[in-house]
Design goal:
CATH superfamily of the largest domain in chain A: MetI-like
Strand content of chain A: under 5%
CATH class of the largest domain in chain A: Mainly Alpha
Helix content of chain B: over 70%
Number of helices of chain A: 15
Distance between the termini of chain A: 16 Å
Structural class of chain B: mainly alpha
Strand content of chain B: under 5%
Shape of chain A: globular
Helix content of chain A: over 70%
Number of helices of chain B: 12
Number of domains of chain A: 2
Structural class of chain A: mainly alpha
Oligomer: heterodimer
Largest sheet of chain A: none
Number of strands of chain A: 0
Chain lengths: 352, 316
């Protein structure tokens, strides 16, 4: 009720006021969520029963050396003070140094993130270009064998362990058939040849006009991207089908058919035109899911992305790296979610 | 018509009546009708069948397993499955082949069903209950408590799930119980969202006002009048989530953070078999098929249950 009241007040003022207010509350949401995210990661990082001092000074350090580093890291201060110091550093883009790689975490993360983005983007593209038509087709041919096949395809996608499918894919297409290249982004002797512009090797090799490396990179990325694309396809096709069914049963569709419009125009112009907005939301969510969910895929394909970075750091108790990586992934996830929500509000007049 | 037949029709009639005589009668009748429409869904029944089989296998693993899942026989390591042409015909047993330590894969799979069932049951008990508590309290009280609780829910939703689970397990130490705890911690927020949404629609209905006028306190209203109505949407969601939970548990096992060797956990078995994948495909393939079958069963059943309990298609 309080919400309705404020919006009524807002409407009496200029419409700009409403927009400013909405932007403000969105920014506040992002800020609060990120603060919580930082707090949870920090808490996990500090409770971790691994001694961060030990991994710096080594096991044979004397008690005095140990104590000196302990004080230097500020571990004697109360937890809340430590958190505030960490928060202050993070706001300035300082996530500390990775104990494993020796580089600042921020540099590490910006180096590995494009690799994940490259994989997730390609996966989402595959998911969209196959999943949307499949979903539309399943809705139009509801109850037929096409619908059943689409359903089975999606169900298998929901039920298959991604790491297992990745191993099977490697075994069949790399090991037995030799159609694609194995793990990694490019063959080992092609590494670090093209200048690093975007961090995405497909784009970098196009910029450098090095087609040998480009096609080599394609043969490496095609399998993991198809795998992720399949998972994205499963989700997108189901959602597309459900949105389309809702539209196709609406009365305006009957009217359009009675008027004698072609089935193609009814389906693609009228019904599909109306599901574009919710569909974009779904695609954004699926993209966010691939960005964060490719941990296991990256490990199996030795893909130097953020998921692999976080996991390996975690297993070697490099908490600065884990905290930094998780915060960045969380931030991207939150931003994509909010972007999807805003898009929905912007394009759909009913969700004012 | 024999006596048992009339009794059956008697029970059927009692269950299908339009005029229930007691509360329990009404509840039984509505359950029976839900069961009837679920029974018509072949896919859902297939899923249910697989899950019942899983429970039986888990219970009788010690009887069904042809060999001890932990006994090693290095002389017979990496024996191919029984139908493979390159298998030495002199070898007995090992229907699905043996792993790198010469253990019988079939027996390990059968015993592994216990671990899967154990994880699924614990998570299915923990996550929805936490979500139900948080969601109904937030929805019923409203105001600041609602805002704070939902913010916390959003923060947990914003987390990359597997990474959060990874971090928790790394903090608490590897092991099945900690994997369960970690998965539950990442799984509860959607339930809280659902429970809150249901509570908000129920909260202002007339019968809740009536109960309140009769002097019922918030505790009684939430536990006796709101929870029962949230259950059906939660059940659907839990069944559909089970597949994801099995996959997450297997993923943790695969990374070496779930069940520890020599435990025959399916994800860990895939991880062991990964090293031999190019020459000995069966070691990693078999446990993957087991995981796939069980999570497919949960998905099939969940789909059917959603059609029965929650006719609005699509919306989570």
């Amino acid at each position: 009720m309080a919400m309705a009241e404020t919006s009524r007040k807002g409407r009496r003022r200029s419409p700009l006021f409403g927009i400013a207010k909405k932007t403000g509350s969105t920014l506040l949401t992002i800020a609060v969520t990120m603060l919580g995210l930082l707090f949870v990661t920090f808490f996990i990082g500090r409770v971790m029963p691994v001694d961060p001092v030990l991994s710096i000074v080594g096991e044979r350090a004397t008690a005095e050396q140990h104590q000196a580093v302990f004080l230097e890291l500020g571990l004697d201060k109360p937890l809340i003070t430590q958190f505030l110091i960490y928060l202050g550093d993070v706001v300035q883009g300082d996530f500390g140094k990775s104990l494993r790689t020796g580089f600042p975490v921020w540099d590490d993360v910006t180096r590995v993130f494009p690799a994940t983005m490259e994989l997730a983007t390609l996966g989402t593209l595959i998911g969209v270009f196959l999943g949307v038509p499949l979903g539309v087709l399943a809705a139009v041919k509801r109850g037929t064998w096409i619908d059943q096949i689409a359903r089975v395809v999606a169900l298998i996608g929901y039920s298959m362990p991604v790491f297992w499918l990745a191993i099977m894919g490697l075994m069949i297409f790399y090991g037995k058939l030799g159609w694609v290249s194995g793990p990694g982004r490019v063959d080992i002797f092609f590494e670090d040849i093209v200048p690093n512009v975007t961090g995405m090797i497909l784009i970098d090799s196009i910029i450098a006009r090095d087609w040998t490396i480009f096609w080599n990179a394609v043969s490496h990325i095609i399998l993991p991207a198809s795998l992720l694309g399949y998972y994205s396809l499963a989700y997108i096709s189901r959602m597309t089908r459900s949105f389309m069914l809702e539209q196709l049963s609406a009365e305006y569709i009957t009217t359009a058919r009675v008027k004698g419009m072609s089935e193609w125009a009814v389906v693609w112009k009228h019904a599909f035109g109306n599901i574009k907005v919710p569909l974009i939301t779904v695609i954004a969510l699926s993209y966010a899911g691939l960005l964060e969910g490719s941990v296991l895929t990256e490990i199996i394909f030795s893909w130097p992305g953020i998921g692999k970075y976080i996991t390996i750091s975690l297993l070697s108790a490099d908490m600065n790296a884990v905290m930094g990586g998780t915060v960045v992934v969380g931030l991207v996830f939150v931003l994509l979610n909010i972007f999807a929500e805003l898009l929905y509000k912007f394009f759909d007049p009913r969700a004012k | 018509m024999s006596l048992s037949d009339t009794q059956k029709t008697g029970l059927r009639a009692w269950l299908l009546t339009d005029t229930p005589t007691s509360r329990r009668h009404a509840r039984a009748a509505s359950l029976y009708q839900a069961w009837l429409s679920l029974k018509g869904n072949h896919m859902a029944m297939l899923g249910l069948g697989i899950l019942i089989a899983l429970v039986i296998i888990a219970a009788l693993a010690s009887v069904l397993a042809p060999a001890d899942p932990f006994i090693q026989d290095l002389g017979l390591r990496l024996t191919p499955p029984i139908w493979q042409a390159d298998r030495d015909p002199g070898i007995e047993g090992y229907i699905l082949g043996s792993d790198s330590l010469g253990r019988d894969i079939l027996s390990r799979l059968l015993y592994g069903s216990r671990i899967t069932l154990y994880i699924v049951t614990l998570v299915a008990l923990m996550a929805p209950i936490v979500g139900l508590l948080v969601g109904t309290i937030a929805g019923y009280t409203g105001g600041w408590l609602d805002i704070i609780l939902m913010r916390i829910t959003d923060i947990f939703l914003a987390f990359p799930r597997l990474i959060l689970a990874l971090a928790f397990v790394a903090t608490l130490g590897a092991g099945i119980e900690n994997a369960v705890l970690a998965i539950s911690l990442t799984a509860w927020p959607p339930y809280a969202r659902i429970a809150r949404a249901e509570t908000l629609t129920i909260r202002n209905s007339d019968y809740i006002h009536a109960v309140r006028l009769q002097g019922a306190g918030p505790m009684r209203i939430i536990t006796k009048h709101i929870w029962p109505l949230c259950i059906s949407s939660l059940v659907v969601r839990v069944t559909l989530d089970m597949a994801g939970i099995i996959l997450a548990a297997a993923g943790l096992g695969f990374l070496g953070l779930g069940a520890q060797p020599p435990s025959p956990e399916w994800g860990a078995m895939i991880s062991e078999g990964r090293k031999f994948i190019l020459d000995h495909w069966w070691v990693a393939t078999m446990p993957g098929l087991a995981i796939f079958t069980v999570s497919l069963a949960f998905n099939l059943l969940g789909d059917g249950l959603r059609d029965v309990l929650d006719p609005k298609d699509g919306k989570s």
